[in-house]
Amino acid sequence: SDTIGKILEREPEWSALPAATPVPIRRILVRCLAKDPRQRLRDIGDIRIEIDAIDEVLPGASEVTMASPAVEKTRTRWLPWVAFAALAVGVGVWAARRPAATQENPLANAQFTRLTDWEGTEGAAEVSPDGRFVAFLADKDGEFDIWLSQIGSGKFTNLTQDIAPLDGPRADTILRTVGFSGDGAEILFQLPGDAVARKMLVPLTGGTPRVFLGERAAAPSWSADGRLVYFNNEAGDPLFVADRTGGDAHQIFVDKKGVHNHNAVWSPDSQWIYFAHGADPTVAMDIWRIRPSGGSPERLTQQNAVVNLLTPLDSRTLLYLARAADRSGPWLWALDVPSKATRRVSSGLEQYTYVSASRDGRRVVATVANPTVSLWRVPLLDRLAEDRDAQPYPLPTARALGPRFGGTSLFYLSSRGTGDGLWRVQDRQAFEIRKGSDGALSEPPAVSLDGSRVAAVVRQQGKRHLAIMSADGTSSRVFAASIDIEGTAGQGTADWSPDGTWMVTGGSDAQGSGLFKIPVDGGAPVRLVAGQAANPVWSPDGNLIVYSGPLGGGPASPLLGVRPDGTPVELPQVRVRPGGYRFLPNGKQLVYLPRLQSQDFWLLDLDTKKTRQLTRLRNAGFLQTFDITPDGKHIVFDRSRQNSDIVLIDLPK
Fold first, then answer.
1. Distance CA 355, CA 468 (A)
2. Cβ distance 365 to 650 under 8 Å?
3. Helix, strand, coil percent values for the chain (each to nearest 5)
4. Confidence band, pLDDT 50/70/90 cuts, at residue 374
5. CA 314, CA 337: separation in Å to the nearest integer?
6. Which of 120, 302, 548, 646 could link 116 by a cystine bridge, Cβ 3.0 to 4.6 Å?
7. In 370-428, which ranges are E strands?
8. SS3 at position 236
9. DSSP H or E run through 231
10. pLDDT level of residue 90 (50, 70, 90 thresholds)
11. Strand pairing of 589-592 and 186-190?
């Protein structure tokens, strides 16, 4: 590049060329070496266009044929320079595509401004295509609504105050829950508790929401040229491209059952569709791209982590959220698309739970969180238990989630600055029995009925397996390595038989997905159910195993049952949060959460087939999982709050 730079400075030799020729050749060389990636020519296809354009400005090109002596004489004079430009192209393309040792931070010179600093949680913030408005979820009025603000006005409007409370934002958002229409005139959202997850559009000026798209259509995104991409919650998450109204839709890609394609977005030039792709949106995803016309998708990242909320800034740079290898985060990352190089661009301990950008990529809106999570308990009463009945569960650690009882002990997840490890409380004494630095845990432990043994889900070579250990954390071993554990993360993916001789889990082997019963002391797994079956719980009397069926695009999945010998059991038609159910000690009643964002518990009586609501909790926060105390008198659950705010990030022009 130094040699080419010197040549560019040799004006006498340039002036000796035909008057019109040096300009396009000089332009090619300069653009091959441009430091700004947005100005640099990207590949040989771009160079070919530039070289072909030189003929259009040659002297006399419009009056004479290319075989004329005048043109041939001119060509012989500038052809060596074109050859030299082609050499520069090769160097430039190689330099552009090789992974950078230190990728530049695209937000290095950006201006950060806090848009909200309210008490409580604001999240799922989206910026309008023109960068003028921000829409987000907030519990400012005591329940979650969609709020709208014109940037710089300092004014905020509640657009859904006359609608039932919306579901609050989560730390690991699976799908975008708020958005703007392609022209920026309407805001997209989803009604809570909708069995088919219908999308609604409400005008920026307020008014009556209208239904948009059909059942199970999810995460629509508009291109700059007016097209729409979305996926359906069917097997393989098929991707569709349609016109701006959702009409004339045609499928461009679908994967095998059990693989997901989430939150597709358009590249700024509308030539590519980026999407999160992988086997489990709560554990392992990566960034892929595909042409709007279809074809084979291309993988862009190799993180195999919780990757989501893809946000293009320009043709080269893509922001996104992902957890680190130790499960910490989520953090804000940047992908350099040509080189496929990634880097974390957020610093410190701030966690990013949502990110969005204007169409020109100059304005970014992010949700920055300072999350807290703790354990609470609420009594099982003959009446509805309310907030006044719920009390914090005393523990020595500030962070606590994923409670599980066994014998006289309580096991839970907590961390000391790294990923979550496993803790045990017995006789009011707390012990860390597995450190997060040894491999962060994201699942509640499976604890034997007597509390003597614990099983945790660990990752090895990109797959999830069960590791069994003693209650003090010793004698850890991985077993049933042929089973790749499947199930909704954070809800518990395995359980013990009451006698401690078997474990049951959802997973997949060489024959596909299923529900497996595994002998703890060795032996081959036994397939109880074929097909998607996850988050099993074994009844205390040993006669019944309940599990989640396919989610099917809604906010809940069917509760299904099977005997330990594989005989199906007909249960009442109850829909539940996957993994959100636990037996009472009598084995005849089941406490459950009816959907993904549920804040209240219900009871299913397996003898009478009747259900009733147990709680009416209005304390803001997200309830992930729970367990029942050994005496059957209390529900102990974790409650997390994002304590998040909205931040504007303005990039320099």
1. 38
2. no
3. 10, 40, 50
4. very high
5. 10
6. 646
7. 372-379, 385-386, 391-392, 401-406, 409-414, 421-426
8. coil
9. strand 228-232
10. low
11. unpaired
Query: Residue 409, Cβ neighbours under 10 Å: how many?
Result: 19
Residue 176 pLDDT greater than 80, yes or no: yes
- Please tell me the predicted confidence (pLDDT) of residue 651: 92
Write down the residue that tokens 């041939």 correspond to: 72
For the ranges 566-570, 581-585, 642-646, the lowest mean pLDDT is seen at: 642-646
- Cα–Cα distances in angstroms (integers) from residue 263 to residues 200, 229, 276, 653, in the given order: 17, 9, 6, 27
Q: What are phi and psi of 436, to 5 degrees?
A: -65, -30
In contact, 631 and 377? CB cutoff 8 Å: no
Whether 14 contacts 98, CB under 8 Å: no
Residue 519 has pLDDT above 60, yes or no: yes
CA 282 to mean position of chain CA atoms: 7
**Phi (first) and psi of residue 481, to 5 degrees:** -65, -15
Helix or strand holding residue 5 (H, E) = helix 2-8
Q: Amino acid identity, residue 207? A: G
Which own/partner contact pairs does 563-571 have at CB distance under 8 Å and 24+ positions apart? 564/497, 564/502, 564/517, 564/528, 566/526, 566/527, 566/528, 566/529, 569/544, 571/546, 571/606
Backbone conformation region of residue 216, classed left if phi is above 0, alpha if psi is from -120 to 50, else beta:
left
